[in-house]
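## tool: complex_structure
## caller: assistant
## args:
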Amino acid sequence: MKIKILIFIIIWLVSFFNFSFADNSEKVDQISKNLRCLICQGQSVYDSQSDFALSMKILIQNKINEGKNDEQIYDFLKSKYGEWIVYDPEINKNTVLLWVLPLILFVFGAILIIKKVSIK
Amino acid sequence: MVKNIKLISVVLLVIVSFFILLKGLNKTNNYSPNLNSSKIDFNFKAKFLYSDEETTLYELINDKDFSIINIWASWCLPCRDEHSFLLNLKSLDKLNIIGINYKDNEISAKKFIKELGNPYSKIVVDPSGVNSIELGAYGVPETILINNNSKTILKKYIGPLDDEKFAELKLIIKNEN
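## result:
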């Protein structure tokens, strides 16, 4: 039993060891999944193998190494390439319809259902 | 009568969607957003093609009134086409042409310049493509016109220069100041 516990503890510690030594490539993946590849639109930077996307991944890695957080990296890219590069658009006067329309449709649908049910 | 209305509406729908799609064919499918800030805040370090020294963008663009940053590569065919326009622009005295050699092999890059002539006053290399992204570029070829005094981007051309863009570039340079 003691041996089992010992083995368990060792494995547990080793897993932490791995964790702390893992580079931040996961972070790069996470950010690049939220970015639109501007050369091959329809793919994310993460999926794409174009020169643009490959450089972009290096750039993100560099920025992370510099100690920039996600928000700063997104802001930097937005200032260079515009709002279009991120998959998650901000609410402004151009995108307000995009955000509000589903809500309107939802409410409209709910009204329809309620009317139908109450008629019965 | 009801049947007729159905038929007419289907035919109308087909015709309308045909023309919408036809119109869409003429549109360029490469969407490029309007830049909200044309101020150059990029500050990159790059090595020269012909020496091992490092330089920054601010050092590169302090010579004359205007700078053109042209991103090129020897493997890029459209870059060959636009090269004659760059050679032509070289004759303008207010203009400083800077080349960024994008993801290229040093030997073939030098061969390219030797073969076609050198329009650039300075050439820096960008082996990883990161500097080009710092500039907000998409790929090769790309041409950025900068006003050196106000440090702003005046115009950006994605893709090779042609007669139309060349004329526009000259006009912008002539009318500024």
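## assistant note: The mean pLDDT of chain A is 84. Residues 96-119 of chain A form the longest helix (24 residues). Handing back to user.
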